[in-house]
DNA sequence: CGGATACTTGAACCTAGTCAAGGGCTGTGG
DNA sequence: CCACAGCCCTTGACTAGGTTCAAGTATCCG
């Protein structure tokens, strides 16, 4: 792992993230100054469940899986973090130890924020506090949505949802380019890779064709009926 | 529904909640002053998904189901809120509309906090901001835990988890009194009521006996093996 | 071109949901 | 005090959806 201060281009990427996008001026500068950039290999552990929490992160490049392990060693993804997303910011005010594991999926670039430092900034600067609250709120809403979706929707419905959310158009044909391996998409939707494959097969009669990471949708309207 | 200002005994209950427990003095007083108490019938809707969000709540008495509906009308609980718990505080900084439904399970007493008022308090008072962040963080952690648990554990494992968390002892026999109907417990664990019944049956050979809301555990150690 | 990795497909199994019927508790009214 | 109605919970039978294991195919990368 390679650590360094923030470069100009990384600064640009950070500005687009949920955490920093509402900030300006001095607040922005203070938070940026507290970050360190880490280059990481694929499948490197960022932190483990039960470890003492000392930092949270923002993904600049690549993907990070947040997951839990059962005692028999089975593994379930809880969230897949994409570039621009923040994770483990719940540890700022959420207890001493990480409650899940984080691992890079591929080579990834992360901005690391020290928890102690950010706690101090949050106390002093209400703009930063607001950014953290916005971030937490959005994650909570998304995660509650995930619970509901897991409990209500079948695999093909979840896949259709995912495609429709990323669909540029409302009607007619469209295509969606997956930004990562199907493996990650499966984890994101709470499915085994095989189940994802089968879900795509189920959607084929509805006009969904898959070639590698490129998904063609015959008719967006028709796909909406599946959900 | 019956609305009124906070009585002395309700004030005492509120002080024990996640939101207020870290506050004192002026911060506490300001937040308390902004609340209104509502007495509600069983199965009364507190708010609906898609409605404009204008308040969040704290449960003083009774239980509240947070749930989502599928388009075919099926229903999935996302969280069951108990006395002392706050819900929908994610709407303070989380978007304009409620993203789920809230309904009382039985007659319930709720403290209602106006979102606009609390937003102002949060901006002005960093203690209140910290309380909100703590609350959001804990909910996010709990909800992520829920996703992981849904994806990793079977029904009997989830039931065993629930019992063990509420178990007064580490070893030997114990008993747990359910604070509500099994119906609610089923929703909390993401199960149909029938599945909860069957889960209890599965645990019977492991020394778990059920009579009404009273659950007897023969040996806590043995039950831990199930998980 | 070769090897590794990711993806797909098939088959057997298993968990949980659904529908339907029966048991048990509670509260009400005769 | 007993009978009955209503509700909640349990149980059974069936079904659908997903997991697991295993084998085969495609794809990527050296």
UniProtKB/TrEMBL annotation, chains A, B:
Highest taxon, organism lineage: Bacteria
Residues of the Cyclic nucleotide-binding domain: 19-139
Keywords: DNA-binding, Transcription, Transcription regulation
Lineage of source species: Bacteria, Pseudomonadati, Pseudomonadota, Alphaproteobacteria, Hyphomicrobiales
Residues covered by the HTH crp-type domain: 153-221
Protein name per UniProt: CRP-like cAMP-binding protein
Gene3D superfamilies tied to this protein: Jelly Rolls, Winged helix-like DNA-binding domain superfamily/Winged helix DNA-binding domain
